[in-house]
Design goal:
By secondary structure, the protein is an alpha/beta fold. It contains 10 helices and 8 strands. Helix 5 crosses helix 7, helix 7 runs parallel beside helix 8 and helix 9 runs parallel beside helix 10. The longest helix has 18 residues. It binds 1,3-dihydroxyacetonephosphate. InterPro entries: Aldolase_TIM, TIM_sf, TrioseP_Isoase_bac/euk, Triosephosphate_isomerase, Triosephosphate_isomerase_AS. Its EC number is 5.3.1.1. GO terms for molecular function: triose-phosphate isomerase activity.
Amino acid sequence: MTTKEGFAVAPRALIAGNWKMNMDRVSSEVLASALAQNVGSVAVDLAVCPPSVYLSPVSVVLGSSGVALGGQDCHTAQNGAHTGDVSPEMLADLGCTYVIVGHSERRADHGEDDAAVRAKAEAARRAGLIPIVCVGETEAERDAGKALDVVESQVRGSVPEGLTGATLVVAYEPVWAIGTGRTPTADDVAAVHAHIRKVLGDLCGDAANVRLLYGGSVKPGNAKELMSVANVNGALVGGASLKAEDFLGIAKATP
Ligand SMILES: O=C(CO)COP(=O)(O)O
């Protein structure tokens, strides 16, 4: 049986919260606890990506609730003289399932290019983590009509070859939609996601099963429309992932 998007077996949508550099220990635990208690009321997979210093307490609170844990970034090495960095093996050791790589804030603030992002995604696989590889155009690139070209080039440069629906997640996050309250139209999201799916066909054996997340100003109020777009298999949520009610509201609005 195949779904309208062509999945051999439709994966559940994934709603992942990128807490970025927010929260403190107690508020992290309170939020994680609310999600752990309510995960049974949603029909999607949930994941949270807290700041690395709070992974451990959040992991304890999540326990065996089924809410998955992820890192926000990782180094490529397993260990060594890399002051301030965290290896994918360390994330796995704390119970992480996922790690975000290539977020636009890291591409912009830390000069990470596609090759660096791909190396991180490969390192994540070495540690058994599922990389959430982020791509997305800037406003100037979209205005110049280059959104599809930019995203294609990022996918080809950042996604390692040979991954599958079980070992890769890709997040489309238009830079101009992050934290701005602005979102692309459903048609624009559909066009980019269909294009990413097509490009992944050259890189992955089962591109149809790779979950493609949309990220950028996803809120409970717009989640239903955005999450209903063809080839959208979930969301990477920033601001609205910091409140249990909003994050769960997005999860509940996701088909
Ligand atoms: O960058 C994002 C998630 O990684 C999106 O952030 P916002 O949901 O705050 O726009």
